[in-house]
Write a structure and sequence with these properties.
The protein is an alpha+beta fold. It folds into 2 domains: about 100 residues, Collagen-binding surface protein Cna, B-type domain (Immunoglobulin-like), CATH 2.60.40; about 220 residues, no CATH class. Helix content is about 25%, strand content about 20%. The protein contains 9 helices and 12 strands. The protein has a 4-stranded mixed beta sheet with strand order 6-1-10-8, with no helix packed on it. Strands 5-2-7-9 form a 4-stranded antiparallel beta sheet, with no helix packed on it. Strand 3 and strand 4 form a beta hairpin. Helix 5 packs across helix 6. The chain is globular and about 75 Å long.
Length: about 375
């Protein structure tokens, strides 16, 4: 072997050493269902969110668009993504399902080289749950897609504006099932700043009696104050089986010892919240009207899609809610009563809703007056 041959062999060895592909890792999500009466054939919806918004395409069993993949799993099923970039952070959330308490392990982490991160979700069927809603837990109407936001007299809906505690109480009061509203109906509450003639008194009184709302240590409710993201989260998660969980540290700006940490954790696990793009939650920031609409729609199981709404001329539209905005479909959902059908994608039978017709907007003021007349008795007792 001459020197030239030795040199050629040396060059080839060097090329093979420096041309290897970048290291990658995997992510596996699995599902189990337990508890008496658990539906092993039921599909549960999941969302995987990566902090890499440019990542799109098929990665094994998951298809990502803008760093987000959605899929459904039944009991005993799992799905695995491979070839994911090392160092990418992920969070896995499951949409809330009535009658089930969800727990998870490893729902957030970072992709590691040559390893498959495992995320396990377990949904336990509550022994008190029933499709007939025989228990007295406060419930939301998840079937009828009535509008629940009216807008302002100037014709705007102000998606980026703040929303008050009184307005939030009124929204959730409107969305209660008739059974819940009847069970907990009240026109009196313990707060010093909520008099019987306050426009939102019925809503505040009823939701306080149900245990969904509470006030402050000084005895006030402060209905005119802007509600914070933490306060709103506590209210929204109150309608689910899982209301509090030990905080797992998903959001760096949530103090594990704060009063709201357990509610934020439960809301994250049930898919009500996802946080900001920078990974923060901002618990003390006022929630915007658009953000509130998104969370309410998730709590109701509504899944509006901009491409499957009605034509603009057949909807209530707003000059400050423009198509293409991240909140456009959710605000339209909140402000238009409509019929709908479910569209599927892959194994997800309820991937998104398709509007099929507009319903008459409900006159909530008249409805609440009628309910007050028909269901209240002196002293605020429920009339039977």
């Amino acid at each position: 072997m001459d020197a030239g041959t030795v040199g050629a062999l040396t060059f080839v060895a060097h090329w093979e050493e420096t041309s290897h592909e970048p290291a990658t890792g995997g992510l596996k999500v699995s599902k189990t269902v337990s508890g008496s009466g658990a539906e092993t054939g039921r599909e549960f919806s999941f969302t995987v969110t990566l902090n890499s918004p440019t990542l799109s395409g098929d990665y094994g069993g998951m298809t990502f668009t803008g760093g987000v993949a959605r899929f459904t799993l039944k009991h005993g099923q799992s799905v695995t993504a491979d070839r994911l970039p090392v160092g990418v952070a992920y969070t896995v959330t499951e949409a809330a399902e009535s009658g089930y308490t969800a727990t998870s392990s490893g729902a957030a982490g970072v992709i590691t080289a040559d390893q498959t991160q495992e995320v396990a979700f377990t949904n336990t069927r509550s022994s008190s749950s029933s499709d007939d809603d025989d228990d007295d837990e406060p419930r939301l109407n998840t079937e009828d897609h009535y509008s629940y936001i009216i807008g302002f007299q100037d014709g705007t809906v102000r998606p980026n504006g703040n929303i008050t505690r009184g307005e939030v109480a009124t929204i959730f009061f409107r969305l209660l099932t008739d059974k819940t509203r009847d069970t907990y109906w009240s026109q009196s509450c313990p707060y010093t700043d909520c008099t019987p003639d306050l426009w939102c008194n019925n809503a505040i009184s009823t939701l306080t009696r149900s245990g969904i709302l509470n006030g402050f240590d000084d005895g006030t409710f402060r209905p005119g104050d802007a509600i914070t993201r933490a306060e709103f989260t506590k209210i929204a998660v109150g309608f689910f089986e899982t209301t509090e969980e030990d905080f797992a540290g998903y959001f760096p700006d949530v103090d594990p010892d704060a009063w709201y940490a357990g509610y934020v954790e439960a809301a994250f696990r049930t898919g009500l919240i996802r946080g900001r793009e920078d990974g923060s939650f901002r618990p003390d920031a006022p929630i915007t009207r658009a953000e509130a609409c998104v969370i309410v729609n998730r709590a109701l199981g509504r899944k509006p899609d901009e491409e499957h709404l009605l034509p603009a001329e057949k909807m209530v539209t707003w000059p400050d809610n423009l198509p293409g905005s991240w909140y456009y479909a959710d605000v339209q959902e909140a402000t238009n009563s409509h019929d709908y059908t479910w569209l599927g994608q892959g194994s997800d039978r309820k991937c998104m809703e398709k509007w099929t017709g507009r319903l008459k907007q409900r006159d909530w003021a008249a409805f609440e007056r009628a309910w007050s007349t028909a269901h209240s008795a002196p002293g605020g007792e429920v009339a039977k």
